[in-house]
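Hey all, sorry for the wall of text incoming. These are the two entities for the joint prediction.
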Amino acid sequence: MPVAASAAALGIWGAVAHDSGAGWVQAIGTLVAGTLVVGMFAPAVAVMRVRCRIAAPVRHASAGSPVSIEFLASAPVEVEPLDPPGPPTMVRAGGGRTTVEIRPAHRGLLDHCTVIVASAAPFGILWWTRSVTLALPRPLLVAPRVGSEEVTPGVARPRVEGPLAAPGRSTEPRGVRPYERGDRRALVHWPASAHTGSLMVRATERQAPHAAVVDGRLPSDPEAAERHAERVMATVRAHLLAGARVELETIEPQGAVTAPVVSLSDAGARLALALPRVR
Amino acid sequence: MSALQLLRRPGRTWPAEDSVVLRAAAAGAVCVALAACTAEGELSGWFAAGAAALVCAGGIFSYWRRSRPLPYLKVFLSAAMVGAFVWFFVTVSKEAAAGQLSAVETPLAALFGAMQAAHAFDMPSRRDLGFSIAGSSTLIAVAGAQAIDLSFAVYVALWAAFALAGLHATWSSMTGGRAPRPVAVLTSTAAALTVASLLVAFLPTPQAPSFSFSPDLGATGSGAVGQPSRVVPAARTAASGPASASGPTGVGGYLGFAGPLDTALRPGLGNEVVLRVRADRPTYWVAETYDSWSGRSWTAPRRSPPPGGTRPDGAPAGPWTALSGGSPFVVTPSDVPLAPAGNGVTRSDAADGSSGAQPDYQTFYLAAPASNLVLHADQATAVWLPTPRIYVSADGTILTGRALGPGSVYSVLSTVDTPGDRALATANGTPGLTASLRRQDLELPYAYPRVAALARRVTAGHATVVSKVVALEHWIGAHTVYTLDVPPLARGQDAVNQFLFGSRRGFCEQISTSLAVMLRTLGIPAREAVGYVPGRFDPLAGLYDEQAKDAHAWVQVWFPGFGWQSFDPTTYVPKATPSTASTMGQILAAVLRRVPAVPVVAGAAALVLGVAALVWRRRRPRTWRARVTRELERAARRAGIPPAPGATLCALAAALDDALDDALGDAPPDGARGDAPGRWHGLAHAEAADSESADSGVPESSPSPATPGSCRRAAELAWAATDAAWGGRDVPRRTGRRYVLAARHLRRRARHHARRHAAARGAVRADVSSWP
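and here's what came out:
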């Protein structure tokens, strides 16, 4: 539309200049035309020639939450992340890094990013855009959202009988006790062991609860799998906040994996890589 | 998008623009466009200044209120614009009713200027600033429509610079205010100019419409109508200030536009543009014609009034017809002796090879003081000229009552008839001319027997007038050469005889006069015409730039049924091949004339002095020690002391000192010679002072350099400087200068001594020779 309108205006201008015999009007018209031509088509060249890349992104992200990535461009362009989406940002040229915000919608492994590169250089008359898919230097693990409801209670069950070593961080020391099988070596209290002649470990104020195994096996339907992963995240967070030892059971590319997770990030990373259950 | 959304879209708010550079560029572009309109006469200076002030003030106001726009400002501005539109339409309607359609440019420029001034107060966003820049293009285009020369390029360049700066600032603002890279700016600007140049190269040349607007009547104003008894020289009646014609009565150095056309005078025609012409087609534009040849000069006695004869309207009696009533002045064919009926030639007969009579509009823009002659193509039929009265003579010459100054503009509608040779071949004889005219256009001061014989010989075998004219043109072209370097015409010598049978070198006046005289000897009515040939065409302005050197003289020959037809024999004449020496001399003279003498001579002198100083500085020894040595050696050579191999500088100085002291007879007593303790003590003291001054910078006491023995002291210092006690350092500057001066003084003494010896030897020789 702008090109057609400009061409029509210039055509009228040229006709008037030609028929009026005023060479200066024609000269000024050609100057305007030259500027318009450059202003309307140079952005296409700029967009086609621009080289973009993403530098040093973060490793973890959460679906629905904004995450900033560093963007580099060889020319000043406006970048609007398309997949995953994000707000448009003007990227400076000359090697300077500009932070571009993206907002992944789903959990998963994000190894590329599609952005719309736009430019109106050099006169700001007309914008030209181009869709560019850029590979991330390192895959971005997008954890599912932390849902509002947890997994059904039956999913979480005690897996290991007997006391386990307390996480330590959430308890206060109250003395030493004899070593039991399964205690971590870090808990060994060497002075007491030397004094008693047998291995003694530090005892905490209260005993850690039983480990909870959370079923992170996802259904095959993507939407259902997303919702289920969100619930799993909520469950893991609740158990971790309660000080429980959490083991997450997922289906990963190498097969079913049941392994403890010590943080929500661990759970998010596991769920980001999780595959749906095969019926 | 719904229609409602489309309606709402223009009213939405845009983000405020913070770029000051963009606002300054937009205001600059508008102000330059306003200045261009003023320069081209579209806007008055006060209007343009006021509009520019409002644009600047509005820009500042818009920047100040960019984030807090006044709610009712748009209403006031809209009302102002509506008022401006109403004024525009009323003005244009009045002008159109008065038949002055061409005057639409002035109110249009005023309307655009008012719109820009009003819009400047409501430019909060980047988009508004872009509209302002785009609007300035229409404003400068209105000015460009009236531009007639290349000086308008200054305004276009300035406007383009501001506009491009504004566009770059737009993109810079889009990118967050970062300054664009210079390479990007240069590249994009060059690309825009390249595209514009390509478009200019490939677009068709603008063509003026085949109708003419009436000229601007305000160009010269209406003054008192003078006496058109003769061509009024520009030097005496120039309307716009004093005349500056280079000749006594000429225009741009050409002497044929006032008074007699003296072919013995050499024209000094320059390259300055004297007028510009907008014409439908390039042709010869006639100023006046001459029909009386005296053997040296052309005159027009028919246009001269009888002594004391005047008409009741104040115009002189005679062949002049006064046309009054204002523009357009209709010059009816009866005013000039066009082809009368009954000559046996009709237009249908002339259709063969004839293009027929066609209207031809010309508008003349005078750029230099001119006479009161009105230029026109072929036969003028209507004249638009800002004067209440014009005068037309029987030969078609048109005069105004006052001279036309620079800036004068007038238009002429002519009838151009260019029949072909086949058509002209049917027109022979002198029908249509009255007896008096025929007698006058065949009149010769004497018989010209050689010219007549030559003309008859050349035209032998040619039955028609046109073939005779062409034959004579070819003969002249084959046997003469064109040059402005003609030999002077002796007193009483005939210019035609001199040209045809003498030098055969001449310019348009000699060439055309010869053809006219040859034709008259054959009984063919002919006369001399002067005017301008089309000069360089300026495609930007659509005008022919007429330089002073485009003034020309040619021949008009009478053809029954077709009137006076122009022939230019000069076009057949080759240019003279000048000698290499004269060409180089002319080139050198032309170059020297253009060289500004004072700055160039001053610069050359400064350059020579600088080079000399550099050479002297380079040849000068670098150390004071070496300078003292050189000066002493020179003094020794001057004193006639031969250089002794292996002699130290100290020994040389001692010998020099002794020789001069002995020679001058002012030798100090022995006790004060070099072995005196006080002297060596003084030397030691001087050395110590030099060392201290070199270290501390404190000036030491300065001994008199002219005292005897100072050369030895200098040599001692020079020698001492070579000693290891100096540690390889040079003599301090002040000490070195002092001893150099001492050595120079010694050299002068040696020169004086040598002169005294020479004089004494001469006296002895004279004395000896006088012995018997």
